[in-house]
Amino acid sequence: MTMIPVRRFTARALPVDDQGRVLLLHGFDPARPDQPFWFTIGGAREDGETLQEAAARELFEEVGIRADAAHFAGPYGTSVTEFTWAEYAVTQDQTFFAIRVGNDAVVSFEHMDHLEKDTITAYRWWSVAELESTEEIVYPEDLVAMLRKINSSSTGFA
């Protein structure tokens, strides 16, 4: 099968609660539904958006949490990753921003698009210790280091 090449510039949102846990989504590639994984919230920047604006929009679209783009701290990490998803060969430039949310943050999949609703199955708040000890697949691989950096930062959160 010939893969369709795609280049994406993305903002990844790392919502962190009062206990220092990060919210992740659980889902799968439609070409490999038997290989689920955990991943960060986020997506491609749209025309005219800053990366922080894209992170705020994606946070609302994917989990229903509203946040002002100005309240995102970071970046806490940047990378270029390559992966396949469905019929696409994706090269993704990604930038990770943190946003502090209260323990009362309500997660909703109501604003997801159809494909997201079909391939995202769950959400979970993860602590550093849980991420370190899990045998489940979690992306990005350096998420623990980013979460430690976020949790040790006393500034940058609204």
Describe the secondary-structure layout.
Layout: E1 4-16, E2 22-29, E3 32-39, E4 41-44, H1 51-63, E5 73-85, E6 88-100, H2 114-119, E7 120-126, H3 128-133, H4 143-152
Parallel strand pairs: 1-6
Antiparallel strand pairs: 1-4, 2-3, 2-7, 5-6
Protein name: NUDIX domain-containing protein
Family: Belongs to the Nudix hydrolase family.
Keywords: Hydrolase, Magnesium
Describe this structure in words.
This protein has 158 residues and is an alpha+beta fold. It has one domain: Nucleoside Triphosphate Pyrophosphohydrolase. It is built from four helices and seven strands; from the N terminus they run ββββαββαβαα. Strand 5 and strand 6 form a beta hairpin. The termini are far apart.
Beta-strand content: 35-45%
| Uncertain runs | none
* Helix percentage: 10-25%
Overall pLDDT level: 95
Read across the widest sheet, the strand sequence of neighbours is 4-1-6-5
CA radius of gyration is 15 Å
Q: Within the CATH hierarchy, at the fold level, what is the topology?
A: Nucleoside Triphosphate Pyrophosphohydrolase
Alpha-beta classification: alpha+beta
Number of helices in the DSSP assignment? 4
Main pleated-sheet profile? 4 strands, mixed
Number of domains: 1
Helices and strands, in N-to-C order? EEEEHEEHEHH
- The quaternary state of the protein chains shown equals single chain
Q: Would you state the CATH class?
A: Alpha Beta
CATH architecture type: Alpha-Beta Complex
Backbone shape:
globular
